[in-house]
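Researcher: I'm preparing a figure for a lab meeting and need a structural model of a single chain. I don't have an experimental structure, so a prediction will have to do for now. The sequence is pasted below. Please return the structure as tokens so I can convert it later.
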Amino acid sequence: MTTADETRAALQRAAEDLLEGRLPGPLTGVRLVEVAGVKRHRLTHDNPDINTEFQRRARELNRTKPEVDRLRGELEAESARRRRVTAERDELRGRLDAYATALMLVTDERDRLLRTLGQRGKVVDIRSIPVIDTPVGNA
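Model: Understood. Here is the structure written out token by token.
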């Protein structure tokens, strides 16, 4: 058996082991050459048929595995949640901007009124006015 034949056999064994789930890890070309113990060039250039077949079968497995389907469902749920939270955040940001604008307008109006009343000398601190007790019911 030549080195090329040995490499091909190692790649085929590693592909079967990975695809059958006998070895852990992702179903990728990098993992395939790692398990086979060969350089990546041997897979991509010298044995492209093994590479193509491995990728095709890996795609099929990834499409039909229950754990992949579960993860896809979780991903879709999280994407929907993210969209909902983003919309809520944007709505709250709009409310906050409106409240900030209203508060600024009210504060500006209060300051303007205080300046106007202060210039006329008619502003009196109500805490300085003495309290007059009146009997209840004698109004």
